[in-house]
Amino acid sequence: MPVRCAIVGASGYTGVELVRLLDAHPAATLTHVSAESAAGKPLSASWSGLLGVDDRLVEPFDVGAIRAAADVVFLGLPHTVSARYAPALLDAGLTVIDLGADFRFRDAATYERAYGIVHPAPELCAEAVYGLVEKNRALLPGARLIAAPGCYPTATALAALPLVEAGLVDWLIADCVSGVSGAGRKPGPRNLYCEVQESVSAYSIAGAHRHRPEIEATLGVPVTFTPHLVPMVRGMVATVHVRPTRPVSLAELRAAYRERYAPHPLITVRDDAPPATADVRGTARAVVHVALDEALGVITAVCVIDNLGKGASGQAVQAMNVALGLPETAGLPRIPLLP
Amino acid sequence: MPVRCAIVGASGYTGVELVRLLDAHPAATLTHVSAESAAGKPLSASWSGLLGVDDRLVEPFDVGAIRAAADVVFLGLPHTVSARYAPALLDAGLTVIDLGADFRFRDAATYERAYGIVHPAPELCAEAVYGLVEKNRALLPGARLIAAPGCYPTATALAALPLVEAGLVDWLIADCVSGVSGAGRKPGPRNLYCEVQESVSAYSIAGAHRHRPEIEATLGVPVTFTPHLVPMVRGMVATVHVRPTRPVSLAELRAAYRERYAPHPLITVRDDAPPATADVRGTARAVVHVALDEALGVITAVCVIDNLGKGASGQAVQAMNVALGLPETAGLPRIPLLP
Amino acid sequence: MPVRCAIVGASGYTGVELVRLLDAHPAATLTHVSAESAAGKPLSASWSGLLGVDDRLVEPFDVGAIRAAADVVFLGLPHTVSARYAPALLDAGLTVIDLGADFRFRDAATYERAYGIVHPAPELCAEAVYGLVEKNRALLPGARLIAAPGCYPTATALAALPLVEAGLVDWLIADCVSGVSGAGRKPGPRNLYCEVQESVSAYSIAGAHRHRPEIEATLGVPVTFTPHLVPMVRGMVATVHVRPTRPVSLAELRAAYRERYAPHPLITVRDDAPPATADVRGTARAVVHVALDEALGVITAVCVIDNLGKGASGQAVQAMNVALGLPETAGLPRIPLLP
Amino acid sequence: MPVRCAIVGASGYTGVELVRLLDAHPAATLTHVSAESAAGKPLSASWSGLLGVDDRLVEPFDVGAIRAAADVVFLGLPHTVSARYAPALLDAGLTVIDLGADFRFRDAATYERAYGIVHPAPELCAEAVYGLVEKNRALLPGARLIAAPGCYPTATALAALPLVEAGLVDWLIADCVSGVSGAGRKPGPRNLYCEVQESVSAYSIAGAHRHRPEIEATLGVPVTFTPHLVPMVRGMVATVHVRPTRPVSLAELRAAYRERYAPHPLITVRDDAPPATADVRGTARAVVHVALDEALGVITAVCVIDNLGKGASGQAVQAMNVALGLPETAGLPRIPLLP
Q1: Statement: the pTM of the whole predicted model exceeds 0.90
Q2: A 12-41 residues with CB below 8 A of B?
Q3: All domains of chain A in start order, with CATH
Q4: DSSP letters of C181-215?
Q5: Fewest C-beta atoms under 10 Å: which of A192, B108, B333, C308?
Q6: Chain A nearest-CA residue for B274
Q7: Is the dihedral of CA C75, C80, C85, C88 positive or negative?
Q8: d(CA D100, CA D84)
């Protein structure tokens, strides 16, 4: 019998990507959809691409209804709302996978500093598993509460993990670019067509972005993190630089990346050239490339993901698969939309 | 046992879309890939998104090898090349599905006028089935040679078929827009980024486009056809106008469209508003909308498709499914990539 | 002494384009800028591209201040707001050029039907000059109140005027595409990046768009008008079709277009191929092409403009130039931003 | 009498941008245009946006004809071609401004290593002035041979110059993004619409890009330089990071940037937030922002330019202005195309 899944918050970008992924999942089925603003209307009123394909009604949030319909619930909600909803959902026996930031930190204090708010359920932070499968695979089976990592932290961690774990890093520089879907569906200066198209900008620089503490918590090293917004819908590049704590050769680096990611089916290591975000569009895959500037002794590594795929909904499904003992890549598209 | 498929011409846009669709097809498997220019190299050298996912070698064109590996062969080739390859492939007992124009006309003379070339295999034209499933469903089962329709003819026909079949049309105006992937992968003035981005133009107007005779052959009425190129990768809109030969009501029109397309799982009829190409991106679906300007007595209908989906590779797979008795939508994504 | 100009409503797209054009105008100078929402802040807070170039403060709307500072006032305001502001500005002796729709109709009743609102100053409608210079050149010198035409009406009229004036048209089909800036700066479903990018849709079809009555009023023939939104910032194509009331040759048509537009410096007639919107980006120019499908006897003509140039602010400056006796093209860029 | 200018190589992106700038220049006039491939045809055959505006014929390259027509000649040519043409043009008494790389290095050996070719006129390298006005203003008046800097070196240098000159830098990390026009007009994998749209990639990383030696020569410090290609036509961001050699405060940094760029009219220093490339689109301006991560003691500075403006043709005109004693900003648009 397939795993029954609910989505709370299906009218946003991560929510509809979950709808798409679960629709094609061979071992899971979407049984319940709720969204505050859209309740009472068909899901296709929020997403016209679902018209004639998935015309079910969006329901109001109701723990009892979710419990009756589902085994697993994905939360695509604003910060603090997830943490307010989670306790009752867990008490009802559901597996909770949160796509927001509320449970990404083991201690609530770091979260509260980063987001400038009071955590509504700090007692759950220590239990939650940070769902970066390539780091926390062993912790996921049987987990009740999973925090899907942020998009920038995912891309940056995948670019840098082999370096950090080899003890090569005492300072990481991470310059990242993101497609506009990362700014969410709520209108604002960062997602109006005419102000984003044909323009690129850095933002929240010099440590101001909320993903910086998440990256540092994941990697355990200080990080200079600079996000940039670029005119595309989906896609993210993390370009990281390290002056290693000891000399290394390119051959060693390549071997370390290959070995590190060999057990992980969604990570491809590419030696010949840096990847492009189009290589992973619509998938939950990441492609990683490492290079060495021998003249300067500086390592540069690049990781590309789809910010809504491995950076959000795809990773959430991957984490569910691992948590429930399903095949890790079940329901996750292998091949990107090319071109 | 799954249907074994080959692709000849896998380095172009329609070819790689076939690779993507067949990879996820539950009842078909891609067993052989050839492409003239790319032979001897991995397919992922042409399409880096396949790296680590499908690294098979591209083979040179060889009828014997295709025959040994496959039951069905898809041709993604330049005009006249398909017609040169087809006879031997048919003689070898393969089902041939051509994505080019060589077999779209029942008589070679129309083809020769439209394309200004001599048809290399005119004797096959009468046998070939024009693979617009929603028109020729009954002709497909068991067909040996199928011509996948052009993108503009598909979108225009789906917008206008219910009107034409009701005898309402003596002149059809079809204004269409296409994404840039319709211009192919060979570099030219219509696919250079800096000359296409932030620009729209009509082209091949006043009857000059080669798809015009195909549209007229499909619909059997004179057509004023005007294509436009717009800055996006995938997507096509056909907007058609008709001054009907007798008065009709909007209710009648809507009923006619619903009834006409009810048996066809890939066509959605939408009443409330015209659809957007994003509603079908990456799918083989079409969404159709009909409206009536009561003041002028003019019918306007709109159809959106993905030019590489229902407009090319998706339709080719749909036609294969119907030809071989597989479920019609097998292997075809239901939900578009949103956003 | 340069003409002193004020802009009321400078925080929108047409407003900032006026700032750009007037900044480079050799015979006009921008002396006053007001905008309701942005008052009290520098104009560069609304438009960061002005930072360090034009950091003047935006003022609240005040007729006395405008009168003291300016001879001409451009209104970039929502519907009905222009008509509420105009009487006092005219009484103060200013020349008023409205970029909105309030004064585009000679009778208020048509406006009220089209826009579904009550006209706040119907007595001014008859006096206002519709500022399509290529049609109303003779009416502009000395005009007190000028209505800058809508973007779709401008492009459609320029495509069709020679045909209409030759008595060839009893029904015009106009399929138009617009860049997203035409949807304005107020966030909504038609200007969110992720929902517009890589998507095209028709909207307000079958006579529902408010520009349809304006086009019919300008051309005096019934029009089937269908607008489409395409993923670019600036640019508009009008593609019009006519089955002429009497047979014509292509040579006649070309001659008619050349002759019609010979006196008009901003209109280029191109014979060899349809133009692209990139050909006029950032300018107030239009390029027009006419073609004849001899098999069907159908005329197709195409006009491209920049919807913020000839379709709005550029045309407003052109109209001011003609109204005040300045050189018609003063301050208007000749060469588009290429690529 | 205006300065008479010639362009050799007007069919590329930098060439047509020069045509646009010189057309509006109050003290210069374009008197001669040549381009190898386009000779004998109107310039508007290469650039349809010039049709009806500048229909002059493109001439074959001829030193005598250029000498007769012009005082200054701009070269928009492939590498080594400029260096082959330059000696005769200089001998003829022309001022030569090269937009290519041939004269950007004071010693030919560095050029030869970076570009892997033999320099055809090494004797001219020492004489050529590197036309970064904000660095070499004093060297330009009267210069015979000017090398317009590369786009990446310009953006990176403007971001970092105040830090380098203050002795704060012993290692600079520069992550840059470029619009696609930087890849030129010759078709290739980096400028095909469908392969660039909706995709970002790093390329030529770990010291492999030819602009790296140019950046190091300009700044005199080792640089980790990583370029990225993003889906837009024009625009460039340089984001640079420095761990300063001594502690500095944000106030000191801001003061240093303001002071450094105060004499330079095309540079805007912005304190409140990082700029966007749209802020300078179509202009020759740069906007610079400096920030300090106090927790890590790391400086991040950002510079945006238009890669065809301050990054190429605009800077070439600026350099000409300074070289000839014209007002520095003559002919250079002040306000970007917004939105």
Answers
A1: yes
A2: 13, 16-17, 19-20, 23-24
A3: 3-127 (3.40.50.720), 151-307 (3.30.360.10)
A4: GGG-SS-STTTBHHHHTT--EE-STTTTSTHHHHH
A5: B108
A6: A48
A7: positive
A8: 12
